[in-house]
Design goal:
Layout: H1 19-46, E1 59-64, E2 68-72, E3 75-79, E4 82-86, H2 112-124, H3 131-139, H4 148-166, E5 175-185, E6 193-202, E7 207-215, H5 220-232, E8 241-244, H6 248-255, E9 260-263, H7 265-273, H8 278-292, H9 297-311, H10 316-323, H11 326-329, H12 340-343, H13 347-352, H14 354-357, H15 360-366, H16 369-384, H17 396-400, E10 405-406, E11 409-410, H18 415-422
Parallel strand pairs: 5-8, 8-9
Antiparallel strand pairs: 1-4, 2-3, 5-6, 6-7, 10-11
Helix pairs in contact: 2-16, 4-16, 5-6, 7-10, 8-9
């Protein structure tokens, strides 16, 4: 008898019927209840010695607040929080004792991971009206609070967050390096939108988003405005080195005169190759890479001169494009070798904004300039948590104190280096 090889196709049931998800959600509910209970117990113990005029404890439990659901990555999790009562009448000018949960702040409806997910979905191409359907697979078909109107309110909140962030005080901040770049993508406008971005490396080697603003193009005037705004908000000391392209150089010298400039090799390579025939571009790209991958500045100069000699006769525009920025293209040799991989290009910005460019077609029909800027800001905030710390972070203090490096190594013969070592 012939064996039946037909396998019946089973359609999975609704989100709530998934037994594994149900177990995870129940475990999350129990863990959350235990954590909130421990938080309440610790709060009551803190005020256990305070009593009322008749000798009773001043801070006591008073039942529970109404149960609410928190949207999480495993679906809605119900939670019930204890109510705390201050039984002593507060004296004039005295604030009553109130309990505010750090785990469950008032009005919390969804976890931070979902807050981060929403702008990523938006920038990946999910329109506002499709959010409820797109998230149903994660949160269940009846997940409340994720309608199109809710998403619009969230976007308005992101815009308010951006405005507050752009006005923050920078007096306590210090950055060793700046990466600056203009990111272009299409929005619902007659011309392409340019978002000007500055990322900084702190004294501890961590990368931070420093500035993000709406612009029209990368120009000296645009970058000067961005840098002047940073200085006006307290960033009096500029970076030791700024990596960028275009009109950055003049603006940097006008605002932070002591800062040095490193021209981005990725941008420069693209500009040079555009002036060469396609048949030569692959070979020329490798020869340009031989320059900035050289172990020493002397070797880089030799590779630089070789490129000029090979292409100078026939492709003078390409060679002129390279020659005019020779000094700022090789500035990284005067900084620690461990930092070279970080400071030769504006890659920290380019890699972060790769997602933005994938949404070009969607933005033509559903993004305004302000909405686009708010979305990009949220994207940066999400990505910032995963930015890698600089290699050789211990050398950053030496860079700040002006220790000189030659071909990436500390110049032990320099008087300032010797004085710093003695100190």
């Amino acid at each position: 008898m012939e064996q039946d090889r037909v396998v019946e196709l089973r359609i999975p049931g609704p989100f709530q019927d998934d037994p594994l998800t149900a177990v995870l959600r129940d475990g999350a509910r129990r863990l959350l209840a235990q954590a909130v209970e421990a938080e309440v117990t610790a709060f009551l113990a803190q005020y256990a010695n305070q009593v009322t005029a008749d000798g009773h404890r001043r801070v006591v439990r008073n039942g529970y607040l109404p149960e609410r659901e928190i949207q999480t990555g495993v679906g809605p999790v119900p939670v019930r929080q204890a109510r705390i009562r201050d039984r002593a009448a507060a004296a004039p000018g005295e604030t009553p004792i109130r309990f505010t949960s750090a785990l469950l702040p008032r009005y919390l409806r969804r976890t931070r991971s979902l807050e981060d997910l929403l702008p990523w979905l938006y920038l990946k191409g999910v329109s506002t009206g499709d959010f409820t359907e797109a998230l149903a697979a994660l949160l269940g078909p009846d997940a409340p609070g994720l309608s199109a109107a809710t998403i619009r309110r969230l976007k308005a909140g992101w815009q308010a967050d951006l405005e507050g962030w752009q006005a923050r005080d920078l007096a306590a901040r210090r950055y060793v390096y700046f990466w600056v770049d203009g990111i272009y993508f299409d929005a619902r406008l007659d011309e392409r939108q340019c978002i000007l971005v500055v990322i900084g490396a702190t004294e501890q080697g961590r990368k931070e988003l420093v500035a993000i603003t709406d612009g029209y193009r990368e120009s000296e005037l645009s970058w000067r405005e961005v840098l002047l705004d940073l200085k006006a908000r307290g960033l009096a000391i500029g970076p030791k080195l700024a990596i960028g392209d275009g009109g950055l150089g003049k603006a940097l010298r006008q605002v932070y005169g002591e800062a040095r400039e490193q021209r981005c090799w990725v941008h420069k390579t693209a500009n040079i190759l555009n002036k060469l025939p396609k048949a030569l571009q692959s070979k020329a790209k490798q020869q340009l890479q031989d320059i900035w991958m050289a172990e020493t500045r002397q070797a880089a100069d030799a590779a630089f001169d070789f490129f000029v000699e090979v292409y100078g006769a026939k492709y003078d525009k390409a060679v002129a494009c390279l020659n005019k920025d020779r000094d700022v293209l090789l500035a990284f040799y005067d900084f620690p070798a461990e930092h070279w991989k970080h400071i030769r290009t504006t890659n920290p910005i380019e890699s972060t904004f790769a997602t933005v460019r994938l949404r070009t077609e969607k933005t033509k029909s559903c993004l305004s300039r302000q909405t686009a800027l708010a979305m990009v800001f949220r994207l940066c905030q999400c990505a910032e948590k995963k930015w890698r710390r600089l290699d050789g972070a211990d050398h950053l203090a030496e860079v700040i104190h002006g220790i000189r490096f030659v071909d990436g190594l500390k110049n032990t013969n320099d008087e300032q280096t010797q004085a710093q070592a003695a100190a």
